[in-house]
Every structure is written in C-alpha cells, then in structure tokens.
C-alpha cells in the first residue's frame, strides 16, 4: 500500500495555478471517481472552477495524445491523466498499459509541463475500487497532490 498521502495543509502554497485533467471514459465508474477526487482536492487546495479544466477521451491510449495537445496549448501548469485498465483474458492489457506508460514518460522527459500519471493498471475491478477511496487510498487525490508538488518543483528550478 502506498504511504504517500499528505494532507492538503502540507502542500506548498502557490498562486495562479491551472491544471488540466484528462479522463478516459473506459471504466468510467472508476475514472469518474478518480477525476472527482482530483478536482475536489485541487479545490480544497484553493484552485477555483476556472483553474481546473476537465477533458474526456475514449480510452487510456488516447490520454497521451490529449496531454500532448494540452501541453502545446500552453495554458496549464500541470496535466493529470486518469484512466483505468483492468486485465482481461487477452494481451490487450499489456499493450495498453505499455503504450500509455511509455507515452506519458516520453512527454515528461521532453516537455516543460509535468504530466501526472493517474492511470490504474489492475488485475480486477475490486483492486480499482480499492484505489478509488477504498482500503488502498484514493489515487485521484494523490494525483492532484502530486500535481501541486510538481508545479512547485517546476517553478523552483
């Protein structure tokens, strides 16, 4: 289990922060909850409605394209990508997980805007639910906290 879960009071205080959240529609009952947790955390931190832009894409593979376009737009300090890939009976899981992981890693290595990886890659739906406010925490909340920390880092260097 992850031990990273600072409360919002321990996050750095920043001004004029804009965050985009891109959410895969696939497994929407999970990704929607992750997105809502991220949005609520950003608002608890002090961002206003107009500081948080939410976009949807069909699936996890499309997250990289969307993040790339949002980076090009130059309007955001961080981008959070949210998805949920649940292993099935075919190797499709491996291809999707590899694609989105490599794509987001590439963007982080090549671009000036942090892209936060909020994609669950799990074996069962229950494992995803456990990470959406269940016994394994809330990965959407953690993604928002990470975004704030990475914006602070980016501004410091």
Description:
This protein is 46% helix and 22% strand. It has a 4-stranded parallel beta sheet, with helices on both faces. The chain has a two-stranded antiparallel ribbon with strand order 5-6. Helix 1 (28-45) crosses helix 5. By secondary structure, it is an alpha/beta fold. The radius of gyration is 15 Å and the shape is globular.
Tell me the strand percentage band. Answer: 15-25%
How would you sum up the global shape?
globular
Number of strands: 6
Largest pleated sheet = 4 strands, parallel
Number of separate helices = 5
Query: What is the CA-atom radius of gyration, in angstroms?
Result: 15 Å
Low-confidence stretches: none
* Overall pLDDT level: 94
Query: From N to C, what is the helix and strand string?
Result: EHEHEHEHEEH
Measured between the Cα atoms of the first and last residue, the distance is 31 Å
Helix content: 40-55%
Based on secondary structure, the structural category is alpha/beta
- Reading side by side through the largest sheet, how are the strands ordered? 2-1-3-4
Briefly say what this structure is.
With 157 residues, the protein is of the alpha/beta class. It is built from 5 helices and 6 strands. It has helices spanning 28-45, 62-73, 92-110, 125-130, 139-156; strands spanning 19-24, 52-57, 78-86, 115-122, 132-134, 137-138.
